């Protein structure tokens, strides 16, 4: 083949990022092809993973599949380069003066034909060097794809841990009365709160350390895969051991939770304030996307890697037929063991308007929102993430216009979930309820 044509052929199989033969080649929507690990690394460093590195053209692709056609062409080009190298005098067996074109799987050594038939290696499994190189390069490629997923997962967990730290630092623990038992419980919660912040900070440090380890090994694997076949087959055991070691003990997010201990007589003291009323269906999910809005808040608007749940919430918002503007009132609502539900109150003026789009600031709720395999508990207006056990069964709602506050109780445990600060409630409201899906 003409040398100019050969060079042009090689250029077409070269990654414009690393300037080496393509490894695990992927093709973007604009038509340009790159090594998948190079594209991942470029995106992380440039903070623009959805852009073409050559012309910065934006791409909607997130998961890139290997371009098999290009991969096969690169394999052919590598084999041609390998044959040229094996024919050189520098790569002859010192003992037998034969080409070392055989790879010993047991010893991870490169041998000539006579060495492979010797007593030392005769019983071992052998294969041509080009086959061994392709096999191990493919193993390393799979490792890099796996590492990249773990790096992204670790980064997501790190962002969540940072949000948790910020939430816990600003978290307010409040109790409604001055009973001695409640004061003791409050002191316990404050101690647990301080311990939890330290746990979250330690978890963050572990995730930062793991991120450095994963990035270091990822880069090492990139370098290894770009090596010529003969060099790639050297020091295999060290490379494989390094890969196995770094994925051990992946740090998992801390799911902190304060112990909601029972408070004797808490629910009984409110029973005499209990009121009865009926609910009316008022607004469906087309008019208020409460749970999806809150999920967006939980996961973060800038996180493009996460789905906020493919199935959008479908529910009816209901409100009571009675409004309250003064006095003290208490009622209970059953949420079973569901994940998505909300109880609380809503501005009366908003409820009385027809076809009004209800915003988060118009409702004052305790919410349970599905987050992957778990649930997040929080309040609206203002937003507070609550780190107590998710209640099962009935939720108690306590309206106190004297102190201008709203409180939520875990009825089954006779414990306080949350109470708004004094001066929070200074306008007429109606009971509001987003029933669980199975209601």
From TrEMBL:
Question: Any idea which UniProt keywords this protein has?
Answer: Coiled coil, Metal-binding, Zinc, Zinc-finger
Reply yes or no: does the keyword RNA-binding apply: no
Any GO molecular function: zinc ion binding
- The question of whether Membrane is a record keyword is answered with no
Listed Pfam families: SPRY (PF00622), zf-B_box (PF00643), zf-C3HC4_4 (PF15227)
Domain RING-type span(s) in chain numbering: 15-56
Which residues lie in coiled coils? 183-217
Q: Which domain of life is it from?
A: Eukaryota
| B box-type domain ranges (all copies) | 88-129
Q: Which InterPro entries match?
A: B30.2/SPRY, B30.2/SPRY_sf, Butyrophylin_SPRY, ConA-like_dom_sf, SPRY_dom, TRIM/RBCC, Znf_B-box, Znf_RING
Q: Which PANTHER family match?
A: E3 UBIQUITIN-PROTEIN LIGASE TRIM (PTHR24103)
* Protein name in the entry: Uncharacterized protein
Q: Which source organism does the UniProt entry give?
A: Sciurus vulgaris
